[in-house]
Specification:
- With 141 residues, the chain is mostly helical.
- The chain has 4 helices and 2 strands; from the N terminus they run H-E-H-H-E-H.
């Protein structure tokens, strides 16, 4: 592109700006006209707060901690069983008596983990803020 093609005072790349900026301005006005403001119910103004914001569910966070704890319990039970089976210094008869109890502990840990995971699936990730704090109201500007 030659310098004579540019308008006086124009900088390099101004043609791009001339095509992009009007497009962006048209998108802003289209977006503004498409969003309709609705009275929020707290005031007579159309403040646009018709839907409550969505927040993280604290019950799900607690359920996630429970799942992690159950996973740790299962890993601990499996390690105990592995140590029991691989221990060369103990008498074999004593090891054979302790293996069923260790396997039962692993099975119970697996059941508890499956229960915790199924409970976690039933809890929504996000909830409306008005369910978390029922009496709280947003400020209308």
């Amino acid at each position: 592109m030659q310098s004579s093609d540019r308008a006086p005072g124009a900088i390099k790349g101004s043609r791009v700006r001339q095509t992009v900026i009007p497009y962006l301005e048209s998108r802003k006005s289209a977006t503004r006209s498409q969003t309709s403001r609705v009275a929020c119910g707290q005031c007579s103004l159309s403040c646009g707060f018709s839907d409550p914001p969505v927040v993280d569910n604290p019950a799900r966070a607690a359920a996630l901690r429970t799942v992690r704890d159950r996973e740790k319990d299962l890993a601990t039970a499996e390690r105990r069983l592995a140590r029991l089976v691989e221990s060369p210094l103990r008498p074999v008869a004593k090891i054979n008596q302790q293996i069923p109890a260790a396997r039962t502990a692993v099975e119970q840990a697996e059941k508890h983990l499956a229960t915790a995971r199924s409970e976690l699936k039933q809890i929504p990730v996000k909830i409306p803020a008005n369910q978390l704090h029922p009496g709280q109201q947003r400020a209308c500007l």
